[in-house]
Amino acid sequence: MADNVKTTTDTVQDQNNPASGIPLALLQNMRPKQWAKNGFVFMAILFDQKLFDADPFLRVLAAFVLLCLTASAIYIVNDLVDIEKDRQHPRKKFRPIASGRLPIPVAIGAAIVLFAVAIIGSLPLSTKLTMVIIGYIALHVAYSFILKNIVIIDVFAIAGGFVLRVLAGAVVIEVSSFSPWLYMCAALLALFLAVGKRRQEYIMMGDKAGSTRSILKEYNLNLINDMLRLTITTTAIAYTLYAAEAETALIRTEYMLLTIPFVYYGLFRYMFLIYVKEHGGDPTEILFEDHALQITIVLWVSLLIVFFYLV
After folding, report:
1. How many Cα atoms sit within 13 Å of 141 on the Cβ side?
2. 175 Cα distance to chain centroid
3. Half-sphere exposure of 218 (CA within 13 A, CB side)
């Protein structure tokens, strides 16, 4: 309820503020907060021990920016497709397109421009990056129109987007020691987060869940909870196996094993937020709001930097 009141207040302020309007509505629809998900693009350069090399870092940073533009275009497309369903949702009805603050022709034009800039901008960096971005666009457009309406495939499609983010960071530089296990870890973690989001949507909407997201009619709470348990287990196992075999390409195994408790705590913390605090809607919002999760991620990354670059 507090979120709804806040969103309503923001909408009224936007309508009454002459400095706001279409540009601000467009920026809001691009969802800058969600750009944090594109941080997965830095996995390759971090684990390949090139984080502090200027040229590779700038190339990955450019890929990050292009992915942010691509993701924003996807959000616009998705909101255009779901405009009627969003208007029935207690929170999504305040989105710029659903609320009418962002005209549909402007939204369509902005999406086309963002797609074009991302694709053209990737060509000087790497043709492989261009192919990844095109694949990312194809996957998410297919998700917006088709895949999100197919039970279980919907969450797999979301996970696939995160794998493409990791791949984008790998193809834009010369990767020499990036373990395939990290692709598996990224995919499983994304699957875990996607299932958690579905759970929150299912619980929040109750009997009306199908009116705002039709695929929710195919789920029930027992299935979603079992999927959560399976994905958190497999994510933990995949990272443990990666840490145990890291000696073959990176550093001594005992160092990497020290990072496992931080990964487990992060997973358990997210489960705590889902089951006890009844969060779990948008993983990005949780990341920005939960200090314990933020500290855990910072400590985990700090340990990796120490082990990869200082030991």
Report:
1. 11
2. 23
3. 12
